[in-house]
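Molecular record:
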Amino acid sequence: MENRRLPPKPDPRPEKVSFRRYLRMFRRDILSAQPEKLYGAWMAEFRTPFFRSYLVNQPDLVREVLCARPGDFPKSDRVSEGLRPLLGNSVFVTNGAEWERQRRIIDPAFEGGRLREVFPAMLAAAESAVGRIGDKVDGGPVEIEAEMSHAAADVIFRALFSLPIEHETASQVFDAFRDYQRSQPLLNLAAFLPLPSWIPRPYRRRTRESAAKIRGLIGAMADARAADIQAGRAPDDLATKIMTTADPLTGKSFDPAEMVDQVAIFFLAGHETSASALAWALWLLADNPEAQARVAAEADGVFGGRQPVFGDISRLAFTRDVFREALRLYPPVPMMVRESRRSERFRDRDVPRGSQIVLSPWHLHRHSRLWECPDAFDPSRWHSTNGKTCQREAFIPFSAGTRVCTGAGFAMIEGVLLLAMIVRAYRLETLADRRPVPVAHLTVRARDGIWLAVRKRKML
């Protein structure tokens, strides 16, 4: 598919900068803080005064860390430092036996036919999103990133608690989360300093306050659900499923505090990451009218004049390729950090025990020695020999191995459904004076939002 120009990509930093300057750049945006050579490197070493870090792009080493020996490379506490006020001791930040226990309780909620069961909640949220966008069509440019944040939050609240985002408590959580996102960088100062656990972390006051508000609201929702479960009137949604599932080894379920931790990460992972991927996918379609027309035609052909059903998702093949391509170019979680538990030898280089192993979907998905035309938007690549190979070896938007995202299947259905319904209803166009610039905060977002011209589409 021919592109008029390549999608937005941050300008890399100069090859050599001081540690102080790098730290300032990193806190502002981790993508533009990296040099261009990382898009073609198999491995790179970065030294700070306190620890060593190794970026690993070589596919077999990525598999070694994530799939073959995940126990030797647990999640690094350095990344979780900045998220601790919100996520507590959730499955996102734990390791070892505690993480295994949490996954044994959580995973059944996303297995088997559960995705089919939550599809009506996704559909209701998608229909609401289409309606909200329609209310803004004649009012000038639409900030589509904000619309997708609203839509994704609606999906997760309906799926978790059977509540639309318009519900008072859900709306308060959404508003508080936006405050948290704006106040919290991906890594805070504690990520760069070897601070003992008993030293208080330097969180911003706004970060602490918004996290406490979110956790308080979620706690009230979890308490109310616990009462409904006890009374036998709880809806059969994800929250009920998780709260009533016992660890098959111990027979114990999550206590109220643990449930707050888990709901917080479900909201972060299920809302923030989906919103990022959807917003970039819509911009890519706006920038590629031929692909957009094909998505609209596919949705019209599959849905016809009726409401979408779960079985339709598997028939939206091109739309799925578009969403997958958006995940490749703009992976919501741009970097994952593990820590080596023992000394290693990678590419004839010694990796000391305690080193930070950085796995970067952002660089791996655009690696010049792996992908054909790595910076181009090309949904058809997934059917080429190169694309199929890279999908197996160099595509990890949801991580891989035992710590692969529990909600990966959920996200793929949600993303395809929302893309199909929005593009079927509206024609999207980019704005020449508002080309988005990718930056990484909690996820890969646009520095000044993603603005599009939106017009109602005549049904085919």
In short: The longest helix spans residues 256-287. The two ends are 23 Å apart (CA to CA).
